Prior knowledge:
Elements: H1 3-34, H2 37-48, H3 56-70, E1 76-88, E2 94-99, E3 102-106, E4 108-110, E5 123-130, H4 133-137, H5 141-144, E6 148-151, H6 162-167, H7 171-182, E7 187-191, E8 217-220, H8 222-234, E9 239-243, E10 247-261, E11 266-276, H9 286-305, E12 312-319, H10 327-338, E13 342-348, E14 356-362, H11 365-372, H12 375-378, E15 385-388, E16 404-410, H13 431-451
Parallel strand pairs: 5-6, 6-7, 7-8, 11-12, 11-13, 13-16, 14-15
Antiparallel strand pairs: 1-10, 2-3, 2-9, 4-8, 5-9, 10-12, 14-16
Helix pairs in contact: 1-13, 2-9, 9-13
Amino acid sequence: MRIFPLLVCALIYTFTFAQDDKTLRSIYDMALTKSEAYDNLRYLCKDIGARLSGSSEADSAVAWGKRTLESLNLDTVYLQEITVPHWERGKREKVYFFNEKGKNALKVSALGGSVSTGLNQFIKGQVLEVKSIEELNDLEDSMVRGKVVFFNRPMDPKLISTFSAYGSCVDQRYAGATEASKKGAIAVVIRSMNLRNDDFPHTGSMGYEEGVDSIPAFAVSTNDANYLSENIKNHKELELSLKSHCKTYPDRISYNVIGEIKGSEYPNEYITVGGHIDSWDIGEGAQDDGAGVVQSIEVLHLLKMMDLKPKHTIRVVLFMNEENGNRGGLGYAERAASEKEKHLMALESDRGGFSPRGFSINGTEKQLNEISKWKSLFEPYGIHEFKMGFAGVDINPLKDDKICLIGLSPDSQRYFDHHHSDNDIFEHVNKRELELGAASMTSLIYLIDKYWIY
């Protein structure tokens, strides 16, 4: 007697599954034929360029983001004011040493937030190579005092996840200057966070500790890190000369850029999608995070083109200041809390515009299991990774015991060839891969909007 109801449920499920399969196919077809993401990325990278918080280029990016969202005829487009740091590199840095071949200039870049070496001055000191902060701390202060500390721990090539390799050694970039200063060093040089050997120095955030003297911090390309290490072995008292022109200015006003499609049934319940519109001041910020910005915009563009009317409000946020403060992410979460907004899910793209492989879920096991039920719908598009993991810096401040945070997970093997360097340019983003990522994000948001149970 109970077979008939079970059969009816199975038929309904099969019919619904077929509908969703058809919708996802349409989303991917639309993304691969009518997407504006690649053209948007070209403008952001080529017409605006690098967009460090506090810069005029960042201001231009905000204006561009607002215009672009307004062109989609969304229900709402607005700016959220935040205060951001303002640091400028000035003239490009110089570091060199002498050996039997003469003067050897190294390819370097000051780390973001570093102090300068002084007004148009070189500083000079014997270089001391270490592999880690722990190794440095094991040395007597007398062995470090007056020297330039060279942190030369490479990213671990054995780790398949390049983000795990990055996380295992980025402490020397962020805290190396402070720890070396505590022992009397006059500057630090950090091996770039990059798995391959090339000539691109990679900048990135670093921090100083109150009460500890601030010393200049430089990143050196991986090729030159290897060359410097060889010369240290052959010249026991090798000296480096270093020069930088960095300066920190008072904080400035900037903005998150926000656009919304209002929900037809639950307009006060939000699904957020976003990336960060700022970038470091070298390169063009194409993979980090121009790709995520244009993919997030494309989610709303695809929904509009397909006339898919969401039940919940879909909100795109172009976050400002992820790179050196995360004040956009923090400010967005603070406002959401103060206005008691109900967020169901937030999705971030900030791992480059490479071929999508899946999603990392920062939520509950129940949420992961619910999302994993759609795995077969994504399999035709090469999406197979649905696992617990970090979702993203910008959306992380939203974390509570209810919201589900999700990060798009592209193939990461080439990401750190570009990250925070002059090699992060528009030409290195593949149009098709970028569009597949946008389609994958749109598909997941479509399913969550349709089926999600808070």
